UniProtKB/TrEMBL annotation, chain A:
Function: Stabilizer subunit of the dolichol-phosphate mannose (DPM) synthase complex; tethers catalytic subunit to the ER.
UniProt subcellular location: Endoplasmic reticulum membrane
Transmembrane segments: 34-56
Name of protein: Dolichol-phosphate mannosyltransferase subunit 3
One GO cellular component term noted in the UniProt record for this chain: endoplasmic reticulum membrane
Main subcellular location of this protein, as a coarse class: endoplasmic reticulum
Pathway(s) the chain acts in: Protein modification; protein glycosylation
Homology family: Belongs to the DPM3 family.
Signal sequence, start to end: none
GO biological process, one term: GPI anchor biosynthetic process
Self-association state and partner proteins as the record states: Component of the dolichol-phosphate mannose (DPM) synthase complex.
TrEMBL record, chain B:
Subcellular location: Endoplasmic reticulum
Keywords in alphabetical order: Endoplasmic reticulum, Glycosyltransferase, Transferase
Family: Belongs to the glycosyltransferase 2 family.
Enzyme Commission numbers on file: 2.4.1.83
InterPro entries in the cross-refs: DPM1-like, Glyco_trans_2-like, Nucleotide-diphossugar_trans
Highest taxon above the source species: Eukaryota
Protein name per Swiss-Prot or TrEMBL: Dolichol-phosphate mannosyltransferase subunit 1
Domain Glycosyltransferase 2-like: 11-179
C-alpha cells in the first residue's frame, strides 16, 4: 500500500473518531471542537522535540578534519616516495 | 568466516567530476585501509575538464589496471546514471558507493565490510545521526536544516533507516541492480529513493556510524534549490512507495 494512502486513512480514522465524539457528546462540545487544535499543536511539539533531540545528538567532529588533514599529508608524502 | 571472506569481493564505485586533487588521495587511502580484501576501484568520470582522467591513468600505472578502472563518460550525466554505468563494469559480488570529495573517508570501509559479514545484510549504509557518527564543517543552520529534513522524512515515510541522504553505502550487487532499476530521482534525492525503495522491498539494511567531513578541496554543492528538490522527492516517494 502506498504510504500516502496509509497516512490519509490514519487521518480519516482520526476525523471519524472526532466526529463520533462530537455526535455522541460524551464530553462537552466546546472541548471537542478544540481537539483538532490540540492535535496540530501536539504534532508540532513532536516535530520540535525530535528536531531538538536530533540537533543535540548531532555531533561535530573537528578531530576528524584534523585526522583527514594528516592522512592527506601522509598520502602526498607516500606518492612522492613512489 | 574465513571462507566467506574469500568469497566476498568488492567493487568500489566512485563517480567524479573535477576531482583531480581528491581522486589520488582517495585511491591511496582505500589501498591503505583495505589490506586483505579483494577489491577493484571503478572511477566513473563525467568528462572532467580538469584532467581527472589523466590522474586516474597515472594511478592505474601505480596500482595496476585491474585494480583501478577508469570508466569515463563523455559529459556530465548525473549521479544516478553514474552508478548504473559503474555497475555495468563491476565484476565483484559487492558494490560500495562513495563520494570522491573526501567527505567519505575510506577508513570506514572495513566497518562496512565487517558489519555485512556479521549480519549478512543486503545493504549497509553509513549514518551521521547515531553515536560515533557526525559531521564537520556545518554551521548550526545547516545542521538544523538537515535535522528538520530528516524528522520530516522519518515521520512521513517510516523508512527504518536513520540517515536517508547519506550516499556512503555497501550493497550486494544483485540488490543494487534491482533497486537502481526502479529509481528515477536525480542528485541526492536519489540516495533517499534508493534506500526507501530497498526498505519497502524488504531488504535487510544495517547501519554503521560515519563522520562526514565537508569538502576539503573544491566547493560544496548545497543551496536553497536543494531543499526544494528534497521536498519534491519526499512527496514523490510518498505517493509512489
Amino acid at each position: 500500500m502506498k504510504y500516502v494512502i496509509k497516512i490519509l486513512s490514519l487521518l480519516i480514522a482520526i476525523t471519524a473518531f472526532w466526529i463520533a465524539l462530537l455526535e455522541a457528546s460524551v464530553i462537552p462540545r466546546s472541548y471537542t471542537w478544540l481537539l483538532p487544535v490540540y492535535f496540530v499543536v501536539l504534532l508540532g511539539c513532536y516535530g520540535l522535540l525530535m528536531v531538538g533531540i536530533g540537533l543535540m545528538r548531532f555531533s561535530t567532529c573537528p578531530q576528524e578534519a584534523r585526522l583527514l588533514q594528516q592522512d592527506i599529508l601522509e598520502a602526498k608524502r607516500g606518492r612522492r616516495g613512489q | 568466516m574465513e571462507q566467506q571472506k574469500e568469497a566476498n569481493k568488492y567493487s568500489i564505485i566512485i563517480p567524479t567530476y573535477n576531482e583531480r586533487l581528491n581522486i589520488a588521495l582517495i585511491v591511496y587511502l582505500v589501498f591503505k585501509h583495505l589490506k586483505d580484501v579483494d577489491f577493484e576501484i571503478i572511477v566513473v568520470d563525467d568528462g572532467s575538464p580538469d584532467g581527472t582522467q589523466e590522474v586516474v591513468k597515472q594511478l592505474q600505472q601505480v596500482y595496476g589496471e585491474d585494480c583501478v578502472l577508469l570508466r569515463a563518460r563523455p559529459k556530465k550525466l548525473g549521479l544516478g546514471t553514474a552508478y548504473s554505468h559503474g555497475m555495468k563494469h563491476a565484476s565483484r559480488n559487492f558494490v560500495v558507493i562513495m563520494d570522491a570529495d573526501l567527505s567519505h573517508h575510506p577508513k570506514y570501509l572495513p566497518s562496512f565490510i565487517r558489519k555485512q559479514i556479521e549480519t549478512g545484510a543486503n545493504i549497509v549504509t553509513g549514518t551521521r545521526y547515531v553515536q560515533g557518527g557526525g559531521v564537520h564543517g556545518w554551521n548550526l543552520m545547516r545542521k538544523l536544516t538537515s535535522r528538520r529534513a530528516n524528522v520530516l522524512a522519518q515521520t512521513l515515510l517510516w523508512p527504518g533507516v536513520s540517515d536517508l541522504t547519506e550516499s556512503f553505502r555497501l550493497y550486494k550487487r544483485a540488490v543494487l541492480e534491482d533497486v537502481i532499476s526502479t529509481c528515477v530521482s536525480k542528485g541526492y534525492v536519489f540516495q533517499m529513493e534508493m534506500i526507501v525503495r530497498a526498505s519497502r522491498k524488504g531488504y535487510h539494511i544495517e547501519e554503521v556510524p560515519i563522520t562526514f567531513v565537508d569538502r576539503v578541496y573544491g566547493s560544496s554543492k548545497f543551496g536553497g534549490s536543494e531543499i526544494v528538490e528534497y521536498l519534491k522527492g519526499l512527496a514523490y516517494l510518498l505517493v509512489t512507495t
